[in-house]
Amino acid sequence: MSFFRPNFLHGLARSAVIVGLAAVPFVLPAPARAQTDIPVGVIMPTTGKEARPGQYQREGIELAIKQINDGGGIYIKSLKKKLPIREVFYDDGSENARSASLAERAMSSDKVIAVIGGYSTPLGEAESVMPDRYQTPWITPGAAASSIFSHGYQYTFGALSTVESLGYTTGQFLGWLADGGKLRKGLKIAMAVENTDHGKDYVNGVTKWVGQHPGYFTVAFNEKFEEHSTDFSGLLQKIKAAHADIFLSDAHLPDYVTMQRQYLQAGMFHQMVSYGARGPEADARKAMGAGVDYIFAGVWWSADLKYPQAKKFVTDYTAFAGHAPDSWYAAIAYDAMRILAQSIERAGSLDKAAIRDQLRSGDLKNSLVPGQTLKFESNGQAAYPFVIVQNKPNGKVDIVYPPDAATGPAVAPMPRP
Amino acid sequence: MTATDFLNLLIAALLLAGTYAAMAVGMTVIYGVMKIVNLAHAGFLMLGAYYVYELHERLGIFPLLGVLLAFPAFFAAGVLVHWVLGRGVPVSDTPTLASLLLMFGLWLVLQNVGYLIWGTDDRSILTPMTFATIRFGEITIPKIGLVVFVSAIVSLAALEFVLHKTWFGRSIRALIQNRYSCRIVGIPVERTARLTFGLGVAFAGTAGGLLALLYPFSPDFGRPFLLRSFVIIVLGGLESFSGVFAGALILALVETFGILFVPSSYQPAISFSLLVLALIVLPDGVAGFVAKMRSRGAA
Amino acid sequence: MNPRAEPVGLAARVLRTAPPLLLLAVMAALPLFQLGPNSLKLLFLTCVWIAASVGWNILGGFAGQVSFGFAVFFGLGAYTTAVGINQGISPYLTYPLAAAIAALASLLIGLPTFRLRGPYFAIATIGVSEAVRVVMTNIDFTGGSSGYRITEHGPFRQAEHYYTALALAALAVGISILVRHSRFGLGLRAIRDDQDAAADSGVNPYAFKLAAHAIAAAFTGAAGGVLARYAAFIDPEGVFGFQRSVGILLMPVIGGVNTIWGPVIGGGVYGLIEEELVAKFPQFHLLLYGVLVMLIILFEPGGVVGLFARARRFVLRRRVASWQPS
Predict the structure, then answer these.
(1) Chain C: nearest CA to A155, how far in angstroms?
(2) Within a domain: residue B38?
(3) Which residues of chain B are within 8 Å of residue C136 when distances are taken between CB atoms?
(4) Mutation site, B7, B267, B271, interface A, largest A CB count within 10 A
(5) pLDDT tens digits, one per residue of C209-253
(6) What is the pLDDT of residue B289?
């Protein structure tokens, strides 16, 4: 006897669909392979809000990989041969959760030896829980917030000096201008920073310098704004009402452009203006023309540094990427890859713990960064000095501080528009 | 705070209010006639911005002219969309969730088509006028803000003219009042609804173009303005045009002056809180509230 | 044989409960098959999304109150678990706590907003959700907009996370079935069809809606907590953002709103697309959802489940048409 059982079949069909859907991903087996190359995960936003700098950092990493592979690759002592680097690239779309998920995928199932990723701080923070979980070295060339490196992680490394020292260097620069008579002492500073660890660190750095050097400046206004806002007019009105002489902001590229436009539209003026680590970016120049003249920024690297290795990088990069390096993004990523390659070679094997040890203890001489040495401190974050660059008319950018690296004079106060 | 600072803020708020009103009116028109909450309004705002941008970049067309050109282009687009969606956008007496979700889906599609075509970076429209300011002593008015404000007022005045002095406009107002009576009187309901949808989208497109002169934009451009449009038409009453003015003014004033009492990072929360408050306390909006007060007074 | 005959009695009940239990057994046995960390992560995420999706559906599907602001509960649950674990509380205690806090929040939100109907309610929920997000971005204790990190000592056991999520999803589906077949569920259905008529029939719409909201919020909050522990780093934009609310809403709509298995299918589809498709084609997934939603509203409001039902009716019609009485 047979009888039609619509409910049972229907339910079974449903279950089959669900299980079938779930079965799709692991029908594809993971191939076991002999080690013929060195897989390195690269996680950068090439779409989304941070796409532009993300793309630059990717280009810097790929230039380094190309140059290493052109020489045959990295020599692995335990295998007695050179192996080329294979980049495994992931686009995290500027989304935190996806960035973390991709880091996890890279380390756990794609079995990379190391990951370079995380522009910028929020993406880096999300990724940073994965290195220790999967015991894979991770270097970030784009996340500078010290909070990433204060958890005792063993496998996280950051190629950017702290944003706090960026703030401190900004204070130093302004103090130097005051000493040189270009700015009066006793000026008031208005600060508007993004509501993130990055912004917090920046404020800490500036106020630390101001506190250690009484008589130079006072911070008259200090507020945070939400990242990726469309309208800063209210905040700018408040800043206007503070009647400060110097305006310091810490923002990423989108907010820098939005705020500076509205700043100019509000007819505002300060003797010195800075947006933290943003200033000379080509996108800002394109969006605002002469509106970005004389803005200064504290950067981790500048194409105007006089070191021979920096000049060579500029030439190589321009040929590789088809455009000149835009601010510091590509150069730091380039050196992150170089120090990783060096550490793999020094470790003599593809053992991730050994590579981590080499990253922790070694340093990259002949580095592009100011000071020419890239070294990770005990907490994993690098610490090298900053340079201050200032936008000049007609698209020119000068290094203005420290004096021994300067390529042009610091213009202070800014001329009125 | 000095008198000059206060005046500066007030002027900024007024300029903002005009722009906000132009932005919200597109949604009001569609809701009033068809009771459809047009979430895709955000998508059309964004497309309007890119339309003006592309005309400026590729053909060198002056942005204000581009805004003017956006009107017929988006009117046609709106009518087309309405025709394609057909049964999903019925004229009904009450808002339906199906139409809400449908418009939401349309918004997702528009936004992501935008991403595909233009990528994710912010664009802005740069003209010689962008940074010019007019000064009256200590008071500064950005020229572009004034221009946008005047354009917004002109477009709203044009809408008012259409609504009160043309047959089409009168049929829209009739539809808002009572759909069945319209059929009795001989108004072609479906056709009017389609043209109204086009009108609403046209306003969204032009408003988007105007906003593009003020702010940088990306395909996600519409979202904060969508939420602000909600606030405005809820404040103003979802079916009244003079209400839209009132709502825009209230929102602009609260946003501009609210910052003085609240840290800047809380600024986005101001409009959202106002939205929730308005929905709960004034379900018929300010205009409805005023009408109720008047009728109570008359009784 | 009558093609429309259904088995009755004990046999029937066994046959009806068999498929879901079979599914559960299969899902529970999967980790034994050496799947690889990526697949297990995918299954984990699917279970988390199923829990949130089934939860939302209790309010949005059964009761017909479409909320665009469920990220509030997801986020509250996530932060509750995160802070709790960092304070030393066992994760398994933080999940009920997360559910409770989300349910409490749902009462606070529902009390003023349930006076609104339809789209007004939907819009209000957007406002509330965004306001909470902005506030969370500013609270320093939970890290503000930079996010909050969970530090757990001890090895990371992926299977443990998976089983937790599976248990939560199974519980959600079970409660959903119970609600559906109860008087409470009947009341919700009445509210969905016509709130005023329901009120006239003796249902208290306000109370019923609040109760449904609380159950829905509890599951969404617990899902948030489970995910937070796995991700070990959460930030306001990710867990409270509008994108998150949209995601939670898309799942039951695509799978079939107002059904038991619709949200489950929707959760599965969403989890698969989010993890696999997004890794390879980052910008297409939202476009796909948008098109899916539009197609579903226009042609098959019942979602994937509706499509199945349509197919079943088609088959049934053909069987009836070809039935010859003996």
Answers:
(1) 15
(2) yes
(3) none
(4) B267
(5) 999 999 999 999 999 999 999 999 998 888 998 889 988 998 999
(6) 64
Give me the mean pLDDT over the A321-333 stretch.
92
State residue C30's pLDDT score: 83
Pair (A293, A325) in one structural domain: no
Residues A398 and A280 in one domain: yes
Strands lying side by side in the sheet with A217-225: A217-225, A187-194, A246-250, A272-274, A296-299, A387-392, A396-401
- Is A308 exposed, middle or buried (CB count within 10 Å of its CB: 0-12, 13-18, 19+)? exposed
Output A223 or C154, whichever has higher pLDDT: A223
Task: Evaluate whether residue A1 is within a structural domain.
Answer: no
Contact of C319 with chain A, judged by CB distance below 8 Å, is answered with yes
- Amino acid identity, residue C192? R
A139 φ, ψ to 5°?
Answer: -120, 130
Whether residues B124 and A257 touch (CB distance < 8 A) is answered with yes
Burial of A151 (0-12, 13-18, 19+ CB in 10 A): middle
Partners of residue C33 in chain A, C-beta under 8 Å: 26
A417 located within any domain? no
pLDDT tier, A1 (very low <50, low <70, confident <90, very high otherwise): very low
Verify cis geometry, omega within 30 degrees of 0, for the bond prior to A308: no
Instruction: Give yes or no: residues A274 and A396 share one domain.
Output: yes
Give the span between the Cα atoms of B238 and C114, in whole angstroms: 19
Q: Same domain, yes or no, for A292 and A215?
A: yes
Domain with A340 in it: what CATH number? 3.40.50.2300
Q: Which residues of A are less than 8 Å from B145 in CB distance? A: 265
Residues in chain B: 299
**pLDDT, greater one: C58 or C158:** C58
By Cβ distance, the residue of B131, B256, B265 closest to A225 is: B265
Residue B171 domain-assigned?
A: yes
Q: Which range marks the domain in which residue A327 is found?
A: 38-161+305-375
In a domain, A9, yes or no: no
Matching residue, tokens 């939302």: C56
Domain range enclosing B213? 3-221
Of A101, A129, A227, the CB nearest to C149: A129
Find the DSSP H helices in B60-188. Answer: 63-85, 97-118, 143-165, 167-177, 179-185
**Residue A8 maps to a domain:** no
Which of A400-404, C268-272, C285-289 has the lowest average pLDDT?
C285-289
Q: Let me know if residue B159 belongs to a domain.
A: yes
Q: Indicate whether B257 belongs to any domain.
A: no
Q: What is the mean pLDDT of chain A?
A: 88
Q: Would you say residue B112 has pLDDT above 50? A: yes
- Residues of chain B with pLDDT > 90, as a percent, come to 17
Into how many domains does chain A fold? 2
ipTM: 0.82
| C142: DSSP letter | G
Calculate how close chain C gets to B7, using CA atoms only, in Å: 29
A191 with A255, same domain: the answer is yes
Confidence of residue A83 (pLDDT cuts 50, 70, 90): very high
HSE on the CB side for B296, CA within 13 Å?
6
The verdict on A147 and A198 lying in the same domain is no
Residue B239 has pLDDT above 70, yes or no: no
Question: How far is C-alpha A67 from the geometric centre of its chain's CA atoms?
Answer: 22
- Our count of domains for chain B comes to 1
Q: Are residues A200 and A269 in the same domain?
A: yes
Whether residue A146 sits in one domain with residue A53: yes
Closest approach of chain B CAs to the CA of A345, in angstroms?
A: 39
DSSP-assigned letter for residue A238: H
pLDDT tens digits for C105-142?
999 999 888 988 777 888 889 888 888 888 888 888 88
- Model confidence band, residue A407 (pLDDT cutoffs 50, 70, 90): very high
Mean pLDDT of A192-210: 92
Question: B224 in contact with A at a CB cutoff of 8 Å?
Answer: yes
Does A6 contact C at CB distance below 8 Å? yes
